[in-house]
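Q: What structure does this chain adopt?
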Amino acid sequence: MIGSSSPARRSDATRNSILAAARERFAADGYERATIRAIAKDARIDPSMVMRYFGSKDGLFAAAVAIDLRLPDLAAVPREELGQALVGHFLDLWEGNEKLTAVLRVGTATQAGSEHLQGVFRDQLLPATRQACPDPEQVPARAALCAAQLLGLALTRYVLRFPPAVALTREELTAWLGPTVQRYLTASHP
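A:
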């Protein structure tokens, strides 16, 4: 029987401690200014341990900000409910998720963060948008418009914390944003 102090559990705890410290440090200092030494100090471990687990600052950053949006299968959602479904999913994902807030902060401040968010857009949002878009040639533009709407909300609500954006209820946000996202996904090209 493996006890609570087994090497595997200690290893997981150390890895998780490093990742938590890295997320906080990347969010506070940005990719460029965050150092392995500062992250190790925050995690209360030797810097060599960070390198042992992640190999490099780039490897640590990639692990710390890995995002799975777990987007719903839009082909299974009634067409007239696509916007509501995506906004609801977005709110479920972002509410209280400091990891996503940190990724957005780093993504807006550094080249590495921007590239990471572009990869999430390419690998996750574009395929989901293809399920809903009436014209395959318009998928990139429609996905970008959805991202602009939802990331704009994330920036004002979770990063900048504009009081009116924070004060909106889930129902209000869905009522305001759902029809806009719906239009981006399914309306005729203007």
